[in-house]
Design goal:
heterodimer; A: disordered N terminus; disordered C terminus; B: 508 residues; alpha+beta; Aminopeptidase; five-stranded antiparallel sheet; disordered N terminus; binds zinc ion; nucleus (chain A); Enhancer of polycomb-like protein (chain A)
């Protein structure tokens, strides 16, 4: 038991910095302080160097504040520091009241060098010299600024030519040396004083052991003794050693190469741009010349009253001539348009042709106006027919709209010997290449003539197609599929023709579906009633068509004969002429007179040009 | 090697001291004599002797006083009637590297860490170190024989104790539970362990790899080189050495331009510079502005000259700052007060662009002419506002200066106590840290320092002591009277800057 307690206590001594500790007032804590635990509250390091921690004044302040923390009243103590004396005598003279605080926070990146003028600053001895020199020379006064520029020039020359002058005991640079090195920054006026100022500079350099005149900090000179010299400061930090590996090297090389390549690309691009702009400029000048000369020609013609070929006054398309020249080896004459890249207007270097009227353009424009007229009429015609359905099967003139305006795309029929295995969940291939392009307004006019009569399906073999319907549904359309007899009968059975009303029987439904499927494009027949209509309608028409083809309707047996089927035609050809053939031919040739022949037939003739 | 802790008390020094009476003629550097200071005689070490107007003047460092109080004294302030301590004879170099640096990375595995570090130290080729540090130190201190090893002050120059402190203050607390016992043990062990001594090479190596600016430089010119600086409306006595041009050591006054922080020994030249200088504010973007102060963000890499000038200046007042390396990897957040003249630089803190240790401040300084006016608190608060914006916890880089410690403690206390007084009935250390962007360790430090973390009824509790509350109330009253200046995070227009690898590298 006792052991457990001590164990507990041991654990309790650990202070968790994450654990919430109760915050209490002194009165809320029982006076009994756990001595043993208290003993374990450590003294945290002050962070002051050990040797200084014991310093008299610091200790005095610390103990004073410690006393205050325990409740003692102690006067505030300060650590004594050396004196500071206020002296404002010169202040306003030295520091002008020129500061205007901007409304926004100050932002600047200019440096001390930017803000302090010439690096050389004249001192007392310089001013004395200047005064004397200027007194001697009445006319020309050397300003302090000029003086400083000269001195700075000398100092900089010395620093660059004799970097170790102080150590090597080199003689002070000669006047010729410093004059030769004088930069453009030294203004002309200042140069007139160069010789005088040089003498002053030389004497000061000599007096200073040929060291820099302005006192400077000691930077490292890589001499062994540097380390011991407390004056040497602001050494360069060494580059942090990065571990060198082959991979890193390769990476760096790669980067450098890429960078170089990119820079070269950029440079090349710039170069080419310059060339292009220059060429453009030349072209413009030429263009202008041509224009002016044409203008001259025209005026000349007018004055001389010459009439004739005006073609040379407008830009002729240089036509095909320059092209083969440009790429003579590439363009094989036999394959035009393949080797010759489309004759861009700028390929021939004359990009501004388009602004001018060319004969070719004019011709093209005329042609365009004709086609647009045709198109307009076409559209008009379509508008007339809006909402009407052309019920004709095999019109004399098939409506052209379809081929022109592809309201109905020709179904891409893919013949498959067997229906494709459908895998669940697998997206199906779509046979149509132009899926979903159908426009909403494409059903304004339905030309049933696009269809052949149901029994005339030219597709003898069963065929399928897959396509996407509305909302991305994938549909399979079947055609020419072998149905079981019942279904087939519903369509083609003679029964249908004798009594179309029978079609209302429910057994018809699968056939309807098949029909709907095979003309799935016609979404307007979506509703069941519509479906029935179409089948009734078809049946009726079929019946109607054969109405008078029979001699009597006593015979209950009806044989569906397609007089135009290949076999029949062959047979007829073999049988030479027979009356029935004649009859049939007549009935085919003379379409019913009331037949809604597409009005387009008359309108599709292009207007005379 | 003697434990350093003891070495601060003369009585505890195990190495027998050579004592005796000296005359002005026998006084030399390294001698510890009794020097009159502020109405009393204090033991002080002579660091330099310089003839002045016929007699020698002595540059002395008072024991247990901060180096900033070191000064030149005339011989009449030295009490030669009392015995002086003679500097101990040279020690063999071996000693320098003997100590095992107790880099207790994880308090839990302190012994492991210690032994590992020892091995590491031993592995280093002796040949490269042997003797060199000593020679180098001598070079910087050529007039004197090597000062006594027994003295804590001397050792300080070649010692970095930061690692053990750093580790405890490292923001990343991997274990959610800190075993207080172990922490204490580790601390005790660290104290008991022989002081680690970093050879110059090791130290520079550390600088190279850590990027820190505040590490103590082994080679410290222990004598202040500038007599006085003139800056803006103030003449200021520098506190420490700063590597301004060598020639400046002979000048009575160095003039510093308030805006570009350029330095001139010749007053005429300085005046001429003021004619040319067009800067009116630190050369960077203003990221904060209220009706009292503005903050500018300066990139050390982009504004090398200005930042170097700033570092030179601040080194005059920061003992542990080093200018060994350049300013590139740092951002400088500079606080200014505005007037018709421009934005007057008041103080700053630097921050590593990427701190591996999670520090949010490298160096922090309020210029002496603006001290004791609450600017330090604003700087500290601002550094934490940046950390909050970054979504990180931050802590200042160690070692802290004495003034830095006091400033931070005051800010931490105020922040934590205010949070705890908002009526909450419980709090956990990490949550307090998350709200304030303070590290868990700094929160713990604060609570323990204020005696607020107690163990009662078998659990730890946070106690808002009467004294702490009373102290805070008094402070609040003062704030009411004087008006309290705080940073308004709303006015901070800042996104944590992102640096490409190339701009972060330490070379040019
Ligand atoms: Zn300036």
């Amino acid at each position: 038991m006792a052991q457990r307690v001590t164990g507990q206590r041991f654990r309790q001594r650990k202070l968790s910095t994450k654990q919430s500790l109760p915050v209490l007032r002194e009165s809320e804590v029982d006076g009994l302080v756990d001595d043993e635990a208290q003993r374990h509250v450590p003294r945290v390091e002050t962070g002051v160097e050990k040797a200084e921690e014991t310093e008299h004044h610091l200790q005095a302040v610390i103990s004073a504040s410690a006393a205050a923390a325990v409740g003692g009243k102690v006067a505030q103590l300060y650590i004594p520091t050396p004196d500071v004396v206020q002296n404002e005598k010169q202040y306003d003279k030295l520091y002008p009241k020129a500061f205007k605080q901007p409304a926004t926070y100050i932002r600047t990146s200019s440096t001390v060098e930017d803000g302090t003028g010439c690096p050389y600053t004249a001192d007392h001895s310089d001013f004395v010299f200047l005064k004397v020199a200027n007194q001697r020379n009445e006319k020309l006064k050397c300003t302090v600024d000029e003086f400083e520029i000269l001195m700075n020039s000398f100092e900089e020359t010395a620093a660059s030519k004799q970097p170790y002058a102080a150590v090597s005991n080199a003689p002070v640079l000669s006047y010729d040396d410093v004059e030769a090195a004088m930069s453009d920054e030294v203004p002309e006026e200042a140069r007139t004083f160069a010789k005088v100022v040089y003498e002053h500079w030389k004497s000061r350099r000599v007096a200073n052991g040929n060291r820099s005149l302005s006192p400077s900090l000691k930077f490292e000179t890589n001499v062994e003794t540097d380390d011991a010299d407390p004056y040497v400061c602001f050494r360069r930090r060494e580059v942090r050693q990065t571990r060198k590996t082959r991979g890193r090297d390769a990476q760096a090389t790669e980067k450098c190469n890429t960078l170089r390549w990119q820079l070269e690309q950029a440079r090349d691009l710039m170069r080419k741009t310059v060339i292009k702009v220059q060429t453009d400029h030349k072209a413009l000048l030429l263009e202008r010349d041509v224009f002016l000369q044409r203008k001259a020609v025209r005026e000349m013609r007018r004055t001389l009253n010459i009439k004739g070929d005006d073609d040379d006054l407008i830009n002729q398309k240089p036509a095909q001539k320059p092209k083969p020249k440009a790429e003579p080896n590439m363009a094989q004459r036999g394959v035009p348009g393949l080797g010759v890249k489309t004759p861009l207007p700028r390929a021939d270097g004359r990009p501004f042709d388009s602004d001018l009227l060319s004969l070719q353009d004019q011709k093209a424009r005329k042609k365009e106006s004709i086609t647009s007229f045709i198109d307009d009429n076409l559209n008009k015609h379509q508008d007339w027919n809006k909402g009407y359905v052309d019920m004709t099967w095999r019109p004399i003139t098939p409506p052209l709209e379809q081929s022109l305006k592809s309201t109905f795309r020709p179904a891409i029929v893919v013949a498959l010997p067997t229906p494709p295995a459908s895998e669940e969940g697998e997206p199906m291939d779509i046979d149509e290449t132009t899926v979903g392009k159908r426009r909403r307004d494409s059903f304004d006019v339905q030309y049933e003539t696009s269809r052949v009569p149901p029994w005339e399906n030219p597709e003898k073999r069963p065929s399928f197609r897959r396509r996407t319907g509305r909302g991305g549904r994938v549909m399979i359309d079947r055609r020419g599929i072998q149905r079981d007899r019942d279904n087939a009968n519903e369509f083609y059975a003679p029964r249908a023709y004798t009594s179309p009303s029978h079609k209302e029987s429910k057994s018809l439904y699968p056939g309807q579906r098949a029909l709907k499927r095979s003309f799935g494009d016609l979404e307007m027949y979506d509703r069941p009633t519509a479906k029935r209509q179409i089948s009734d309608h078809d049946a009726h028409r079929t019946f109607d068509r054969f109405k008078y083809d029979r001699d009597s309707d006593e015979d209950e047996e009806l044989y569906v004969i397609d007089p135009h089927s290949d076999s029949h035609m062959k047979y007829r050809v073999l049988m030479e002429r027979s009356t029935s053939t004649l009859q049939l031919r007549r009935s085919q040739g003379g379409q019913p007179p009331g037949h809604h022949r597409s009005a387009s037939g008359q309108h599709l003739i292009p207007p005379p040009a | 090697m003697a434990p350093r802790e003891g070495s601060n008390e003369p009585s505890g020094t195990p190495v027998p001291l050579e004592k005796g009476f000296a005359t002005l003629a026998t006084l030399r550097t390294g001698v510890k004599a009794w020097v009159h200071k502020d109405g009393e005689y204090r033991k002080a070490e002579i660091l330099a002797i310089q003839p002045k107007k016929g007699t020698n003047t002595y540059y002395v460092h008072y024991e247990e006083f901060n180096k900033r109080l070191d000064e030149w004294v005339r011989p009449d302030r030295i009490d030669l009637t009392r015995e002086v301590e003679w500097p101990a004879p040279e020690k063999p170099d071996k000693k320098k590297t003997q100590g095992a640096p107790p880099k207790a990375q994880q308090p839990q595995s302190k012994s492991d860490a210690a032994s590992k570090n020892q091995k590491k130290t031993l592995k280093r080729p002796r040949s490269s170190q042997g003797g060199t540090p000593e020679v180098l130190t001598d070079a910087g201190n050529s007039k004197s024989s090597r000062p006594s090893r027994a003295s804590g002050k001397e050792n300080k120059e070649v010692t970095i104790l930061a690692p053990e402190i750093t580790d405890l203050a490292t923001p990343k607390v991997e274990d959610e539970e800190i075993d207080l016992v172990d922490v204490q043990d580790a601390a005790a062990a660290a104290k008991a362990a022989p002081p680690e001594e970093y050879s110059r090479e090791e130290e520079i190596e550390k600088l190279r790899t850590s990027g820190s600016l505040t590490q103590n430089q082994t080679e410290i010119s222990r004598v202040r080189n500038l007599e006085k600086i003139q800056m803006g409306k103030h003449e200021i006595e520098p506190w420490y050495f700063s590597p301004y041009p060598v020639e400046f050591a002979e000048e009575d006054m160095v003039y510093i331009c308030e805006f570009c922080l350029g330095y001139y020994a010749d007053v005429t030249q300085f005046e001429r510079h003021r004619e040319k200088c067009t800067l009116q504010h630190p050369p960077g973007n203003e990221i904060y502005r209220d009706d009292f102060v503005s903050f500018f963000e300066i990139d050390g890499r982009r504004q090398r000259t200005w930042c170097r000038n700033l570092c030179l200046l601040s080194k005059l007042f920061l003992d542990h700052k080093t200018l060994y390396y350049d300013v590139d990897p740092f951002l400088f957040y500079c606080m200014c007060i505005r007037s018709e003249h421009g934005c007057h630089f008041v103080g700053y803190f630097s921050k590593e662009k990427e701190s591996a240790e999670g520090y949010n401040v490298a160096c922090i300084l309020t210029l002496p002419q603006y001290q004791r006016a609450g600017f330090g608190r604003l700087l500290i608060q601002f550094s934490y506002e940046l950390s909050k914006r970054e979504g990180k916890l931050g802590s200042p880089e160690k070692p802290l200066s004495d003034l830095g410690l006091l400033g931070y403690r005051a800010y931490w206390q105020e922040t934590i106590v205010d949070l705890l007084m908002d009526g909450r009935t419980d709090a956990n250390v990490e949550e307090l840290g998350a709200i304030t962007a303070m590290t868990t360790n700094d929160v713990l430090h604060t609570l323990q320092n204020l005696n607020m973390l107690r163990y009662s009824k078998n659990q730890h509790v946070i106690v808002l002591t009467d004294a702490v509350i009373e102290q805070r109330e008094r402070q609040k009253e003062k704030e009411k009277l004087r008006g309290k200046r705080v940073i308004d995070p709303e006015r901070l227009q800042w996104k944590p800057p992102v640096f490409t690898a190339s701009s972060r590298t330490w070379n040019w």
